[in-house]
Amino acid sequence: MLTIRKILVLSKLPLFHDMKPEILADLAHITLEKVYPRSENIFEKGDEGSSLYIIVEGAVRIHDASDSNKVSKTLAVLKEGEFFGELSILDNETRSASATAQDDSILLEIGQHSFQRLMVENFELSQNLLASLAHRIRNLTEKIQKDS
């Protein structure tokens, strides 16, 4: 994928909105394009995590697959323009859920060390990540409150 296309994809994400073009260019340079056919595992719950994924095309099912004898519970189905694996950018814990390509998918992968370096250099990037995480926590809280 061309760098300019990566920049366009990144600029549309809430995670990177209002970022300066040079920051988007830095981000584009540290992304790796990954292609996953339908039903292919991207990662499993319990795997070591060290990257964030952005969906360029397709859809990804986030699910709880802690017991191979049970049907896994779908936690979310994410589509183009959404991201997942963000917790692995911040810590060295194992993956808290599994991710599987629901459709043929093209993803951009951003590694932990490169992203953390950019966060140190660009306070705006850190602020956007924290705001995105806060938004997800609020949405989960609302969902839990509705379900109970």
Topology:
Layout: H1 3-11, H2 21-30, E1 31-36, E2 41-43, E3 51-57, E4 59-64, E5 73-79, E6 83-84, H3 87-90, E7 98-101, E8 105-111, H4 112-121, H5 123-147
Antiparallel strand pairs: 1-8, 2-7, 3-6, 3-8, 4-5, 4-7
Helix pairs in contact: 1-2, 4-5
Task: Give a written overview of the molecule.
- The chain is of the alpha+beta class and 148 residues long.
- α1 (3-11) crosses α2 (21-30) and α4 (112-121) crosses α5 (123-147).
- The chain is 39% helix and 28% strand.
- It has helices spanning 3-11, 21-30, 87-90, 112-121, 123-147; strands at residues 31-36, 41-43, 51-57, 59-64, 73-79, 83-84, 98-101, 105-111.
- The chain has a four-stranded antiparallel sheet.
- It contains five helices and eight strands, in the order ααββββββαββαα.
- It has a single domain (3-112, 121-147), classed as Jelly Rolls (Sandwich), CATH 2.60.120.
- The model has no long low-confidence stretch (mean pLDDT 89).
- The protein is globular and about 45 Å long.
CATH superfamily: Jelly Rolls
- Morphology: globular
The N- and C-terminal alpha carbons lie at a distance of 44 Å
The DSSP helix count reads 5
Count structural domains: 1
- The arrangement of helices and strands along the chain is HHEEEEEEHEEHH
- In the CATH hierarchy, what is the class? Mainly Beta
Major sheet:
4 strands, antiparallel
Quick recap:
By secondary structure, the chain is an alpha+beta fold. The protein contains 5 helices and 8 strands, in the order H-H-E-E-E-E-E-E-H-E-E-H-H.
